[in-house]
């Protein structure tokens, strides 16, 4: 029993010693760890002391950035407004500069046209106007009805035509658009018409393919009269309001050239064939031609109605209302000075040519084919005369057709001559449009010499 107690006491002592050793070891480890942690804490405290100023700086920067971000939309709006003001000012300056340039350009254009017209007057060039008709029902629909004619917004003497993907530009004395009125067209020729009262020979003729608007421009419907009636109305107005020392007599003839035959549309028998003869004293005349004196617009309307009833018209596939003959309205003005007895004679020839319709395109046959062939022959002869005049050849073939023979005095000099070329604006007619415009440019270069008074 004593032995057991002794052993237990020894074991307890060992356990105490082991426990004390473990405690001491744990204490040492805790001290080491504590020391390590203390070092780390000290190091962290030192790091935090170093970071704190940076954090403070960052907070300051953040506050400043936040303030800038808050102010940015307002600054951006102010900057945008400033840029807008500067852009608007720049645009305004550019616009003003452009307006000045456009004003100067238009002024130069007017001067150029003025000087050109004066040069035309001196040289006796044939003035050429172009009128483009609107799109009409006969043009149809689809690609063939696409418009191929355009205008220059800044220059009323330029017309462009698109053919096979290429634009061709033509320069004439004046170009009238589809929106131009009969009054605007007449205003351009008014001074020319009036000069026949001063004893000049004047010729105005309309050229172009069938259906391009020649008859509309020259004659016009009752609601919108053309050059013919407006010209006579202007002559009557000037005679009534003009110099009372002069007495005027105005007579008219209306001639048709149909299948190379000259016919009097005011005569009792409009089918009678007339001849063109030379006066003994020079110049051309048509024996048997009816001269009708007109004293008012009512007289003119009566004369026109008789001529319209007698004029040969027929329907072709190309234009159901196309006229198949050349029509010439000849106005003769004879003025007598009541005091001195001096006389002046002026003549105004207003010509509505038949269309230059191609035979295969018109699908004409029989009498219509003969008409088309004769029309093409006379227009070809007109082209030959223009070519001879343009190249100043010694011989000009006026006698190759009745048309050119009758127009000899107008085309051969000592006359003021103007051509209105009529064109259609759509793709299906582009070949005829180009042909008409090319012919117009050739005509424009012809010099007839300065006109003289009779």
Largest sheet: 9 strands, mixed
What is the string of helix and strand elements? HEEEEEHEHHEEEEEHEEHHHHEH
- Count of individual helical segments: 10
- Percent strand equals 15-25%
CATH domain class: Alpha Beta
Distance between the termini: 179 Å
From the alpha-carbon coordinates, what is the Rg to the nearest angstrom?
A: 49 Å
Structural domains: how many: 1
In the CATH hierarchy, what is the architecture at level 2? 3-Layer(aba) Sandwich
Helix content: 40-55%
Briefly note the CATH topology name. Answer: Kinesin
Catalogue the unreliable spans.
314-322
What's the mean pLDDT score?
82
* Number of DSSP strand runs: 14
Q: Judging from the principal axes of the Cα atoms, what is the shape?
A: rod-shaped
CATH homologous superfamily descriptor: Kinesin motor domain
Which structural category fits the helices and strands?
alpha/beta
What is the strand and helix layout of this fold?
Layout: H1 2-123, E1 127-132, E2 149-151, E3 158-163, E4 166-171, E5 174-176, H2 182-194, E6 201-208, H3 214-218, H4 227-241, E7 246-258, E8 261-264, E9 277-278, E10 284-285, E11 292-293, H5 297-310, E12 326-337, E13 343-352, H6 359-362, H7 367-390, H8 402-406, H9 408-411, E14 416-423, H10 430-444
Parallel strand pairs: 1-5, 1-14, 6-13, 6-14
Antiparallel strand pairs: 2-3, 3-4, 7-8, 7-11, 7-12, 9-10, 12-13
Helix pairs in contact: 2-4
